[in-house]
Amino acid sequence: RRPILVDCDTGIDDALALAYLLAEPAVEIVGVTTVSGNTDAARAAANTLSLFELAGVDDIPVAVGAHDFRGRAYAGGAPHVHGDDGIGGIALAAAARVHDARPAVELIDHLAARHPDLTVLALGPLTNLAAYAETPAAAAFERLVVMGGAFAHSGNVTAWAEANIHNDPEAAAVVFAQEWDTTLVPLDVTMSQTMDATDLVRLDAIAGALPRALAAMLPFYLDFYAGRVFADRRCALHDPLAAMVAAGVLRGVSVSSGQVEVRLERGERGRTVSSRGSSTQRWVRGMEGSAVEVLLERLESREWPD
Ligand code: BDR
Ligand code: CA
Which UniProt keywords apply (predicted)? Predict the structure, then answer.
């Protein structure tokens, strides 16, 4: 099984991605590090621990990472998209287990040394990974998959910029300057992989405390998207899609390769641009099949504690 470290800002689609990865036989989550984004880094860790507890998982370390971004202080997340608590206001009980004592960068360093075949899956701003890249011992991961960016597609924060990159463009610039094997999963593909009200009925029918929590938080996310982004009641599966790319389970994934850069100047801040050519970086352009189908099928096939 492929070892995966997830760096995330546990909001609703991050929660779906974590649940998917717990149910995906192709991978094993070996650690989680959190960063501010949808909510603050400490809350993202508390959310992750609560979700893991519902799944009966008590052996995956969860470390808290950067509260503030490189270019600015964290100033509140996206409560209109993910709720005040990041997970749709479902009032999950705090987990009995506390977060790992190590700061996120230390846990990343430890796991990178321990797993030469480590896949890192970044589902939030790239603040922790930029800090790791600048440590003297930073090693290249086998593979880095980033949910982020927008190329031909418009942004979801500004006309150009996607949220994870826009929150901390300076950090993204540091990460994209590394010669790491990096795959971006941008809005160009995540906006067309959605979950609708019928899919939610199917999720709601899965037994177990974790699927129940997911089904409880999703209406908030669907409500944000409905009418504003999509004509009907559906939401984009940004982070689960990136998790599936990291797990290598999607059929017919097409990619382009080239150097990705991030615009830092006002007006275009957080915009991702690419120059085609040979590079260690690529971005997903399309795939066959349906992410929601993979997600529901995996969640249905695992037995979850009640
Ligand atoms: C990305 O930003 C966050 O709000 C989501 O969890 C996802 O990672 C989408 O732009
Ligand atoms: Ca996220």
Answer: Glycosidase, Hydrolase
This prediction has a pTM of 0.98
**ipTM surpassing 0.95:** yes
Q: 30-68: buried (b, 16+ CB within 10 Å) or exposed (e) per residue?
A: bbbbbbbbbbbbebbbbbbbbbbbbbebeebbbbbbbee
> How far away, in angstroms, is 148 Cα from ligand 1 center?
8
Atom of ligand 1 nearest to the CA of 239: 8
Q: List C-alpha distances in Å: 278 to 174, 180, 257.
A: 19, 13, 6
Annotated catalytic residue 9: yes
* Cα 291 to averaged position of ligand 2 atoms, centre (Å): 16
From the candidates 9, 13, 14, 85, give the one annotated as an active-site residue. Answer: 9
Q: Going from the first residue of the chain to its last (306 residues), give the mean pLDDT of each consecutive group of 10, the final group possibly shorter.
A: 98 98 98 98 98 98 98 95 96 96 98 97 98 93 97 96 98 96 98 97 98 98 93 96 98 95 96 89 95 98 98
